[in-house]
Structures are given as C-alpha cells and as structure tokens.
# Entry
Amino acid sequence: MGGGYYERDVPERSYSSRDEVFNYSQQMSDPSAARENDRREVHEMLNIKGKKRECRNSEEHPNVLPIVVAMDVTKSRGDDALVVFEKVPLLMGQLPMTGIADHPSICWAAVGDATCGDYAPIQVGQFEADDRLDESLSNLWIEEGGGGTGQESYELLAYYLARNVTMDINDDDGKGFLFFLGDEGFYPEVSKDQVKAWCGDDIPDDISSAKIFEELHKKFHVFFVYPKKSWEDRKDNIDSEIAGRVKEQGGMVEGCSIRASLLWNNYNDLDLHVIPPSGEHISYSHKHSRCGGYLDIDMNAGGNSSMKPVENIRWKKGSAPKGRYKVFVQNYTTHGYPAATEWRSEIEIDGKVHYFEGTTPKDKIGSSSDMTIFEFDYDPKTGIKNAENDYALYKDEVITEQWGSVLEHGHLIEIDSPKACVDAMIGAIALKTGKKTMDEYVEDMKGRGQTESRCDDVKAALSGLSCEETVAQVDESYFA
# Structure
C-alpha cells in the first residue's frame, strides 16, 4: 500500500461517457479487426497471477481500514464502475470526515466469467489511499463479457482474496470490508484449473464455494450490494447477451419474423437445427431453405473454434411461412470438452423472445444427442400463443437465496438505484463498526444534500444490518 492522501475534488471533474475514464479498454491496435486469437490482457496494475496484495499500517497511515470494492464488469453491470468512479471522493472523504474510519485504504477489483471464456475474469488492484485510486480504477478493463449462465466468477475472486491478501488489521483481530457489487450468482465450486490459470496457485482439487466463503469471512466483513432492476430490464440484459454474439459474427437479429439462436461456452461443435413447415432440414449441411430460412452463423466447425460460440437461423420479416416448426440442438462432436455441454437458446417470433436452456446428453454425440428446444405452430397473421420464458437462474429469489447462504444476516444490501451504492457501503461500514446508528447516518446523508428518496432507499437497504458482531454461518445444504 502506498502513502499519501486522496485529493480529487469532484466538482472539478466530470465525465460524459465511460470511454473518457476507462480508456484502457480502448487500447487495441485495431478494435474493429479484433479476432478470437488477438486477445486483450489485464492491465499490469490489476493482474494478480502469481502476485499478492497487502494492506499495511504505516506511520503516515496507522490503523488502516482495508476496503475492497469488487464490481461485476459483464454486460449487465458494466456501467456501475463509472458510477463508483464518480463517487470515489464521497467514499474517501466521508469516512474520515464523519469519524467512521480515519485511514481508509481501497482496493478495486472486477469480476467477469472465467467459466464462459472471459479474458479478464478477475482483476485486483493494490490497496491505495491517495490519487492512485483513480489510476487503478481507470485501468479496469470493462470487458462486458459473461456467458449468459446467470452466474459470474465471484467465487474465484473470493478464493484470491481469502488466500492471497495480507492485512495488518487481521493481526489485531479486526476485519476489512469487502463489497461485491453485482446482480448474479456465483458458481458452486472454485475450479482448480481456473485458480491455476488466473491466480497462479496449484491446488489439488476443486473447492466448494461455501468453504471459500467461510475462509473469506475470517478476513473480511463480506457484503453483496444488489442494485434492483425491473424484471423487463433484467430480461433485456439477458436477451442482449445472445443477440450481441450474433451481431458480432455478422448474423441477423433485427428485422426477423422468426429467429432461433443458440449459445454455449466451450470449443465443442454444437449445431442448431430447424425443421420448418416445408419439411426441409435447416442445418450446417442445408443452410438455405426454399421457404426462406437461413443458417447465417455456424461456429466451431472444423478449425473455426471459439470459447464464445453462437449459431443463428432466421427468416426475414414477412418471409416465414405458416405451419409447424421444430427447433433442436445437436452435439455434433467434441473438441476437448465433455459431451455434456450447457447451452442457452432464444426463439424470437414476431418480436417476442422465448428463452430455453439445457445440457446436451452425457457421452453422446451426433444424432443420438438431439434435444428438442421448441415446437410451435406459426401463423403470420396471429403469431403463436405466449410461451413462458424460463430465466430461472436470473430470478431475484434464486440470486438472493444463494448469496444469503454465504453471508451474515443483513449483509445482502438491495438498493433501488446503483447511484446509492456508495452511500450504502459507507452506511454499512458505519453500522458494522458501531461508529454510527442508522438515524445518525441518515442525518449525515441529509447533511450532504441527499434527497429523501435516496435516504429512504439506503435506510431500507441497511435495515437488516446490526452493528453487533456476528459469526458468518454458511448454509452448506444450499450446495448439496
């Protein structure tokens, strides 16, 4: 941890877009020509492979309070980093000014999806207390990846923070503060292969995420800050993940009467098939049908390999014929991965998206692995009846139940607006350390001009948090 003090005056700096701040994400030689093998790298300041992070006391900064802010930088929450950046002066100013923490030191971290092939699934900066905070945060790579599984690699970051961070506060039986900021769940196990690839550690076996969170609680007060969205907004984000891949590969998304898209996250060669009313079999061997259907993206066939593949069959608007359609997926062959491959699909019919997910059969390839995704009768004049979309892993109750199983009571902080996240974090520190009561903290917020609605949002979000120290109880039955 470096010395010095944070001095940025927020009124002197404003940013109209993320690109003006997080400019490291633009440092490709030719972004428009980026290829799968022309991969980006994590900025050296945030690359933790084979490295440790430390938060030490010093003569200049005695009794340092370590604070880790870990942000989801996938598609659904990439803009939160800009919100946090704008409020760094608030975070660094209010803690000492209000007597909550005289010497805060912040470590910025970012979470992506290692399972689904992100190039920067975890990024962790140094603990800083001065203007280097801006530099570290600005160098985050907002990859906006993710694989559409409803989970991100929070457990991988939890592993690194539990086993590779040293803080003097722990020597005095104290704890740092860790705030995960996101809107999805974590994977149930920490992968030993991912630990090796991204942290540089050799561990003998995969580890239960429940066990890692138990270790993490010994060093940190762990919180999950969950900005709430309307269900329609959440579905839009989910759907955009598949649509984004289709567009990147040059496929058609807009202007379709019917579109069937398939997404998975390994090198296996899955194939999308549709049998339309004409009886033809649209697939890799018959891409153009007489009835107007066209397979415009076919990935991971032969040498065309990607960890983020997608396939797409579509009919241009007004061209889809009346009759019965059958959509199915086949695991044509494996390329170094088990035959059982998780997949997601969306079927768009006259602008309405229907969502499906599944796993290809274990130990089966070719036609024996065929899985029907959706069968429907279509009429260009009336469409079809609404199908129930299944976004099971994205539902609020699923996400909050999983996080609740590894957090202390009151440490799941649900806020209405991402702009309230820093206010909520400051309040959580104030209440947990016993430096402020809820009423006192609300008065502090009013004193710096926060609106009644913002105060009410934060008060409700922190209502379950007690300032009394409790022991984290991890519910292992959740992972059974």
